[in-house]
């Protein structure tokens, strides 16, 4: 009975993955800023809705107050993706 030949080329080895340099823990200010942005954004939107004639927080920008509040909250939520 014939014998099979050995493998002539080396076995497959997957390429190494580069490890990101920023794998360390976050700075001490990161979590308070993240939570602060979310809370301030929520308070901004709630203040806009509670003020009956929409004169708070900034009356000159009108309905853009909602955009400001949601932008603050969204920034805080986006920071949660970098939290370690």
Q: Encode the helix/strand succession as letters.
A: HH
The count of β-strands is: 0
Uncertain spans: none
- The percent range for helix content is 40-55%
Instruction: Give the radius of gyration.
Output: 27 Å
Provide the residue-averaged pLDDT.
Answer: 88
How many helical stretches? 2
- % residues in beta strands: under 5%
Distance between the termini: 61 Å
**What is the structural class?**
mainly alpha
Approximate shape: rod-shaped
Biggest sheet, in brief? none
Structure description:
The protein is mostly helical. Helices cover 44% and strands 0% of the residues. The chain contains two helices and no strands. Helix 1 runs antiparallel to helix 2 (64-79). The N and C termini lie far apart (61 Å).
Question: What tags apply to this protein structure?
Answer:
rod-shaped, 2 helices, mainly alpha, 44% helix, 84 residues
Brief rundown of the structure:
The protein is an all-alpha fold. The protein has two helices and no strands. The chain has a domain at about 30-50 and about 60-80.
């Amino acid at each position: 009975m014939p014998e099979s030949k050995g493998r002539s080329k080396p076995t497959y080895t997957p390429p190494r993955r580069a490890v990101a340099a920023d794998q360390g823990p976050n700075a001490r200010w990161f979590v308070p800023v993240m939570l602060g942005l979310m809370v301030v954004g929520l308070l901004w939107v709630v203040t806009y809705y509670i003020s009956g004639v929409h004169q708070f927080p900034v009356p000159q920008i009108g309905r853009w107050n909602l955009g400001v509040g949601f932008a603050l909250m969204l920034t805080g939520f986006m920071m949660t993706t970098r939290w370690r």
